[in-house]
Amino acid sequence: MAKTLYDKLFDSHVVAEENGTALIYIDRHLVHEVTSPQAFEGLRLAGRKPWRVSSIVATADHNTPTNGWDKGLAGIADPVSRLQIETLTDNIKEFGAKAYFPFMDKNQGIVHVVGPEQGATLPGMTVVCGDSHTSTHGAFGALAHGIGTSEVEHVMATQCLVQKRSKTMQVLVEGKLGNGVTAKDVALAIIGKTGTAGGNGYAIEFAGSAIRGLSMEGRMTLCNMAIEAGARAGIIAVDDKTIDYIKGRPFAPKAEQWDAAVAYWRTLVSDIDATFDTVVTLKAEDIQPQVTWGTSPEMVVNIDGKVPSLDQAKNEVQRADWERAYAYMGLTANTPINQISIDKVFIGSCTNSRIEDLRAAAAVAKGKHIAPNVKLALVVPGSGLVKAQAELEGLDKIFIAAGFEWRDPGCSMCLAMNADKLLPGERCASTSNRNFEGRQGQGGRTHLVSPEMAAAAAVAGHFVDVRTFN
Amino acid sequence: MQAFTQLNGLVAPLDRANVDTDAIIPKQFLKSIKRSGFGVNAFDEWRYLDHGEPGMDNSKRKINPDFVLNQARYQGASVLLTRENFGCGSSREHAPWALEDFGFKVIIASSYADIFYNNCFKNGMLPIVLNATAVDNLFNQVEASVGYKLNVDLAAQTVTTPNGEVYAFEVDAVRKHNLLHGLDDIGLTMQLQDKIKVFEQKHQAAQPWLFN
Question: Which ipTM was obtained for this model?
Answer without folding.
Answer: 0.95
